[in-house]
Fold Transposase family protein.
Amino acid sequence: MVGTAARALIVSERRITGLSQVVIADLVAELGPVWQARRDAELCDRPRRRAVGAGAKYKLVFVDRLLATLVHLRHGVTHDVLACWFGVDRSTITRALGEIRPLLADRGCRVAPGLRLRTLADVIAHLGATGRTGIIDATEIRVRRPAAHRRGRNRFVSGKSRMNAMKALVVTDDRGRLLFCGEVRAGSVADITQARDAGLVDLLADTVHLEILADAGYQGLAAQTCGQVVTPPRKRRGKNLEQVQWLMAHHERARFAHSSRRIPVEHGIAHLKNWRTLARHHGHRHHLPDTIRAVAGLLSDQQATHKRKLPALPAGRTT
């Protein structure tokens, strides 16, 4: 295990974990009892010859397990490097990541103190209650290529990037605050199909006057949701379009205005990709959904606790 000085350095240096000390302290206070309760339940759930608590003690305490997971998610550090850093075996790090990652994934995205959104239904209910505009988009994450001659190998090949990938549905509000990231599908699945499979159309059937911005990949959802999903105007094709320049100019201005309103979701995706495990996933594909939800929850925590510096007052004013 790492020493007290090394642990303090990891916590205090935001470049290592991507999180402030306040967020890490909240994670320890929130997840520590949950991890201990699950561990005690596992120990008591099988026939025992010795009492609970007997035997060798953990070399890697909960705080170190949490810090190792945060470093791995932020920088994509291999298990071998983390094992050398924390002074334990590689299998201990692998087991620690497998224990902490699901706990982080189950937390959801924080939007207010005491309020977290864990499902797409929670997001739609939150947008309807607050009256804010939602923005949806899909992001692709490169994954390992399936083994040769394996059934369904080509379904991970993305039609856009022509690479093996999986895509996640991202939802932000009009301020760029992350509300949801999940519903992971194979790379060959179209964006609109992913949204339909996630139940977006059914969820919007029970709402009115809700506005969700989307790109051209979701054209067709507007008719199914009574216009609640707003997509850009379709590109005009045909001959002699240069003769109606005023119409083309109006059309391009409308598309530009729509894309300008969608910018916050692109910024949200960029913040997600700053975590190296989502820039390119080198682990097993079945770990990716938990990894995405864990990073989304951590990013939302950092966004909720981030305080902007107040602008300096003009000279001669004190209030």
